Amino acid sequence: MTERPRLVVTRRLPAAVEAALAERFEVQCDPDDRPLSAAALRRAVASADALLPTVTDRLDAEVFAEATGRCRVIANFGVGVNHIDLAAAGRAGCIVTNTPDVLTDDTADLALLLMLAVLRGASAGERRLRAGAWDGWGPTRDLGRRLSGKTLGIVGFGRIGQAVARRAMHGFGMRVLAWSRRRPTADTLDGVIWVGDLDALLPAVDVLSLHTPGGATTRHLLDSRRLALLPAHAVLVNTARGDVVDEGALVEALAAGRLAGAGLDVYEREPVVNAGLLTREDVVLLPHLGSATVESRVAMGMRALENLVAVFDGRAPRDRVA
Ligand code: DGY
């Protein structure tokens, strides 16, 4: 029997995925299900044939410093690859792949969930009820604001941004404006109004939803200056990457009443959440749940496996990003 390639998997994966990986690879996985240290990642890159990391692993240049050329592919479990130094991986001879498409619908659903939860005060209301502080219905009590018919601004018009736009237009009758670095093709716009200047889009929206990749080019894209361009009644939703927003500036804007609320699924220093957010009733805070459904997580694992198999079969992987 030929020796199977050695694969380091950094976190526990759904059982069906672990079983499928084990059929094809000699899998080493961390039974503790904790993010690997830089030293463990460095060892993995030096000694394994492939690595299957997640968003919680920081694969910076240092991790590739002792690469031996053995590791042929980094098959990321997730679509975002801002935690991987793609240039350093390339210099070390590693192909990098991701898992697009399969988590688009769940992440888009979560963005809508956050919009509704913030505008309708769902989290604050539930907290009050559980605390025994709800003493019943009243015509002027617990009033939120309507999502239907409002104007949504989408920042980043890739797969997830487009899926959010479809839900907003067809499910909630919203007017949708979108900004992205490159002008989208007419067929992807399909009723969405593209605005070439982000600063011009911001004052026109009731809800702003972020869908750009993370990393150096989008870090603090929403800084204090841009947050100040949003109307005071606007709500910010972030299901993309935490560092797209300057979290400190966001806390200041909320505290000063320059922004009505925020729905966040991602944070600048995960799993640490800015203390200034934790105490606010006008924010809804979720623990990076975008792709967290059984369906998405199994599909992400199978897609990572498909990419790994392609590389070891000598074919071009479907989702090569570098
Ligand atoms: C992604 O796919 O990028 C999600 O944030 C989980 O990693």
In words, what does this structure look like?
This protein has 322 residues and is α/β, with parallel strands linked by helices. The protein folds into two domains: 6-102 and 294-312, 3-Layer(aba) Sandwich (Rossmann fold), CATH 3.40.50; 104-285, Rossmann fold (3-Layer(aba) Sandwich), CATH 3.40.50.720. 34% of the residues lie in helices and 14% in strands. The protein contains twelve helices and twelve strands. The protein has a seven-stranded parallel sheet with strand order 8-7-6-9-10-11-12. Strand 4, helix 3 and strand 5 form a beta-alpha-beta unit. Helix 1 (15-24) packs parallel to helix 12 and helix 4 (104-119) packs across helix 6 (159-172). The longest helix has 19 residues, at 294-312. The chain is globular, with a radius of gyration of 21 Å.
What characteristics describe this protein?
322 residues; alpha/beta; Rossmann fold; 2 domains; five-stranded parallel beta sheet; 12 helices; 12 strands; 34% helix; 14% strand; binds (2R)-2,3-dihydroxypropanoic acid
Residue share in helix: 25-40%
Average residue pLDDT:
97
The named CATH superfamily of the largest domain: NAD(P)-binding Rossmann-like Domain
Identify the overall geometry. Answer: globular
Q: How far apart are the first and last residues' alpha carbons, in Å? A: 32 Å
